[in-house]
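Same chain as my last thread, 232 residues:
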Amino acid sequence: MAEVLVIQHQAGEGPGTILDEIEKSGHTAHIVRIHQGENIPATVGVRGGIVVMGGSMAVYDQEKLSHLKQEVALLKLFLKEEKPVLGICLGAQLLAAAVGAEIKPGLKEIGWFGVRKMPDAFKDPVLRRLPENFPALMWHGDHFDLPRGATHLLSTDQCACAGFRYGKKAYGLVPHLEMNAAMVDEMVAGLRKELAVVGVEPSQILEDTSEHAEPVEELARVMWRAWLALLN
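reply #2:
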């Protein structure tokens, strides 16, 4: 069994169902909570893999937020050792930056959107069990092109690169597939001002959540178990 390092940036964006599956699988999770002042490890150590969660900060804020630079450096170490990596939203952007992609501000994509599997996703060991098209919660305004040398896995109408794999064990996923309905409700409640600024109706997100969250959660759990199998 392995220890999985989990980097959490904000209180409302924890590992959710990923943590559930880590624990069910018999592995352990060591959560570093940036929002509580905890420090990023400088080395991989004995950890079997890393999960990097989302957050409202931007990858290009590294000069203002030193932990982002430290996270990119740590991701490079995990990649060098070919340990499993999973980045969600901001985590996916940090992984993309670690392999040379430029992260840029763009069109905000907030709410439930249709996600498409790209051709290579149908044979991918982690994503192959996902349906060809499925709804997912998106909550981002930064974008990146497919990193050089990466495999394109997911896209939406507004986010050309919504998922990729780098090497055999590193995954960047922009959709918030880790969230259950309660987590989405909490996120919406805490970010109503942000939603008002961008003209997104909270009631629509909550309505879509009541319809989509449960079946999507089941799909995501299958995917997390497949990712965790890479630890062995």
